[in-house]
Amino acid sequence: MILCCGEALIDMIPRETVEGGTGFVPHAGGAVFNTAVALGRLGARVGLVSGISTDSFGDILMTELVASNVSTSALIRAKRPSTMAFVHLSSGQATYSFYDENTAGRMIQPADLVSVEPKVKALFFGGISLAVEPCADTYAELLEREGAGRAVMVDPNIRPGFIANEKTYRARLARMFAKADIVKVSDEDLEWLVPEGDTLDARAMQLTEQGPALVLVTRGGEGADGYLASGHKLIVAAEKAEVVDTVGAGDTFNAGVLAKLAELGMLTKAKVRELSVEDAAAALAYGAKVAGVTVSRAGANPPWASELA
């Protein structure tokens, strides 16, 4: 099983009203939530660790998880509000305004976590949950406690405007990257994380030096690159698609990579550390294929495995 660890929230997606103005429609979302849902739809065994409200928005999240075959046994339900992310679209590209004070997701503590079952062979961490306390420290502690014998992937999905203390945030990410086997970033994330470096390649290789065996860099419509610690570089083109919006595209890419590695029998700490160029390339290509479906429809709506046949 793959255990995804991080936020589940409500994306408020803009839609034209019957009067001709713009309204917002609630959709289940959140970077880590989206990855878990995509994994479930792709047929992977997956669960989610997150704080979810007992309010009506939390019920929306729970319904989507169950419908997408995601285990909810590790979730923490709380009588706090749900996190909201109002989505702003410009030429299909999404930016976000977050409302996260005192929410069910943000306020989880280490004592709230259930024990990770032995059947969990891989952990995925990411999203805004790694940027705000106390949940960020809770997830970092979970990685510290449970990551040594499991394959670990981290996608920080950086939102600079959401970071209250940059020094603390950078230090936390550095500790998590040191324990990660796979780190995925967008090209914009990479420039923020590694401001020094003449090229994207140079910046990405600096990340491999922090500990991960594989660094993935997504570049929107230009595709994605992979960098093995051995020095090999992989390039995969983006799937051709009529782009509706990019909400959840990177999260779905993550799911595709993890699902393919699991299918190949390579999603263990030891095997990821010995990943061949061919298997890494197959994982990137599948991630791009899955993401190509997501961008072709509104919101974070990952495909089912049957849609990829």
Structural account:
The longest helix has 18 residues, at 277-294. Helices cover 33% and strands 24% of the residues. It contains 9 helices and 15 strands. Strands 6-4-1-10-11-12-13-14-15 form a 9-stranded mixed beta sheet, with helices on both faces. The protein has a single domain, classed as UDP-N-acetylmuramoyl-L-alanine:D-glutamate ligase, CATH 3.40.1190.20. It has 309 residues and is α/β, with parallel strands linked by helices.
Write the layout of secondary structure elements.
Elements: E1 2-5, E2 9-16, E3 22-29, H1 31-41, E4 46-49, E5 51-53, H2 56-67, E6 70-71, E7 76-78, E8 84-90, E9 93-99, E10 122-126, H3 135-146, E11 151-155, H4 166-179, E12 182-186, H5 187-193, H6 200-208, E13 214-218, E14 224-228, E15 233-236, H7 249-263, H8 269-273, H9 277-294
Parallel strand pairs: 1-4, 1-10, 2-8, 4-6, 5-7, 10-11, 11-12, 12-13
Antiparallel strand pairs: 2-3, 8-9, 13-14, 14-15
Low-confidence stretches: none
- Estimated structural class: alpha/beta
Gross CATH architecture: 3-Layer(aba) Sandwich
- The tally of helices reads 9
Give a short account of the largest sheet: 9 strands, mixed
Number of strands: 15
Structurally, how many domains make up the residues? 1
In order across it, which strands form the biggest sheet?
Answer: 6-4-1-10-11-12-13-14-15
Highest-level CATH class: Alpha Beta
Organism: Shimia sagamensis
Keywords: ATP-binding, Kinase, Nucleotide-binding, Transferase
Domain Carbohydrate kinase PfkB: 2-303
InterPro entries: Carboh/pur_kinase_PfkB_CS, PfkB_Carbo_kinase, PfkB_dom, Ribokinase-like
